Amino acid sequence: MGIFKWLLLPFSMIYLIITNVRNFFYDFGIFKSYSFKTPVICVGNISVGGTGKSPMIEHLIQQYQGDFKIAILSRGYKRNTKGFIEVYSDMTATQVGDEPLQFKRKFKDIKVFVEADRKYGIEQIEKYYSDIELILLDDAYQHRRVKSDINILLTTYDKPFYRDFILPVGRLRESRQAKKRADLIVVTKCPENLTSDKIETIKTQVNTSQHQKILFSTISYDEKIYSQKETKDLKSFDDFYLVTGIANPKPLIQYLKDQQKNFDHLKFSDHHNFTEKEIEKLKALKKPILTTEKDFTRLSQNIQHNIFYISIEVKLDKDLKSLLNIKPQ
C-alpha cells in the first residue's frame, strides 16, 4: 500500500463503519426489505468497475426468455431524465442510459425500464405491466430495500473482492462479508485455460457458505462486427481505431492483439459522455472505428458512418438455469 493510500485509510474506515451499520440495520429488520409477487433476480457486485454485469443480464435473458415474460430494471446511469421510464429502441443513451438502451435494441421483445429507486420501479412494473413474470435487476446488489429471490454476485478473476479493500483505498463498495447475501457467486473474465488447481484455490479463497454456489465464466467475442447498416467479418477488418468508454478494456485489447490486429486505442472513462468536440475529432479520423456495443449506443447518436461494434457473451462452466431453479408463478 503506497503512502497516498495510507493517507486515505481513515476515510475507508469511516466508510466501512457507515456501510456496516447500514447492513446491520437491514439484517436485523430495523430497515425494511420488501418482497414482491414477481420473481426477482438481482445481478451486481461489491466493487466498482466492470465485472461483466451487462453480459450476465443478457445471458439470463437468453436462458429465460422462452419460459418467462421478462422485464429489466436498471438505474439508467448518467441519463439526463428522472423517474420511472420505459425504454424504447428509438430513444438515446442520453435519455435512458447506454446499458438499458443496449438491452432494448438487442432484445426487442423484452420490456426495459429505468428507475433509480428499485423498490418503486418494481411496484410500477407490477401495477402497470401485470403480464411480467420475471424481473432482472441490473446493478442492484446494494439496493437492500428489495429482497430479491436470487442474488448473483460477480467478481473478476484479475481483481477478486477477497484481495480488495474498502473505498477509497480499494474498490469495494462494502465489506467483503457482503458476499454472504449472494446465492450465486460468479468469477468473471477467467482465462480459457483455467486449471482445476486454480479453480480450487479460488473456491477456497471465496469461502462460500453451504447455501451458495460458485461458477466461473469466460468472455466470448463475436466473429463479426456490426454497424447500423452492415455486418463484416472481424477477420477482414484491420487498421482501425479502437474507441472504448468502459471500465476495463484490457480483455478486448488482448483479444484484438491475439487476432493480430493493427489498431490505435483511444480510451475514455466508463460511461463517458462524449462532447461535441470529441465527436468532431472522432468523425475526422481517417481510419474506421471499432468500439464496444455499449459505447456504440452513445457514439452512434452522432456518428453514423465508418463505425462498428463487437459484441460479447459469457460462457459459464455450469448450467445456470438448473442452479437457480426459478419457475413460473
TrEMBL record:
<keyword id="KW-0808">Transferase</keyword>
<keyword id="KW-0812">Transmembrane</keyword>
<dbReference type="InterPro" id="IPR027417">
    <property type="entry name" value="P-loop_NTPase"/>
</dbReference>
<dbReference type="GO" id="GO:0005886">
    <property type="term" value="C:plasma membrane"/>
</dbReference>
<comment type="similarity">
    <text>Belongs to the LpxK family.</text>
</comment>
<keyword id="KW-0472">Membrane</keyword>
<keyword id="KW-0443">Lipid metabolism</keyword>
<keyword id="KW-0547">Nucleotide-binding</keyword>
<dbReference type="GO" id="GO:0009245">
    <property type="term" value="P:lipid A biosynthetic process"/>
</dbReference>
<keyword id="KW-0067">ATP-binding</keyword>
<comment type="pathway">
    <text>Glycolipid biosynthesis; lipid IV(A) biosynthesis; lipid IV(A) from (3R)-3-hydroxytetradecanoyl-[acyl-carrier-protein] and UDP-N-acetyl-alpha-D-glucosamine: step 6/6.</text>
</comment>
<keyword id="KW-0441">Lipid A biosynthesis</keyword>
<feature type="transmembrane region" description="Helical">
    <location>
        <begin position="6"/>
        <end position="25"/>
    </location>
</feature>
<protein>
    <recommendedName>
        <fullName>Tetraacyldisaccharide 4'-kinase</fullName>
        <ecNumber>2.7.1.130</ecNumber>
    </recommendedName>
</protein>
<comment type="function">
    <text>Transfers the gamma-phosphate of ATP to the 4'-position of a tetraacyldisaccharide 1-phosphate intermediate (termed DS-1-P) to form tetraacyldisaccharide 1,4'-bis-phosphate (lipid IVA).</text>
</comment>
<dbReference type="GO" id="GO:0005524">
    <property type="term" value="F:ATP binding"/>
</dbReference>
<dbReference type="InterPro" id="IPR003758">
    <property type="entry name" value="LpxK"/>
</dbReference>
<keyword id="KW-0444">Lipid biosynthesis</keyword>
<dbReference type="Pfam" id="PF02606">
    <property type="entry name" value="LpxK"/>
</dbReference>
<keyword id="KW-0418">Kinase</keyword>
<keyword id="KW-1133">Transmembrane helix</keyword>
<dbReference type="GO" id="GO:0009029">
    <property type="term" value="F:lipid-A 4'-kinase activity"/>
</dbReference>
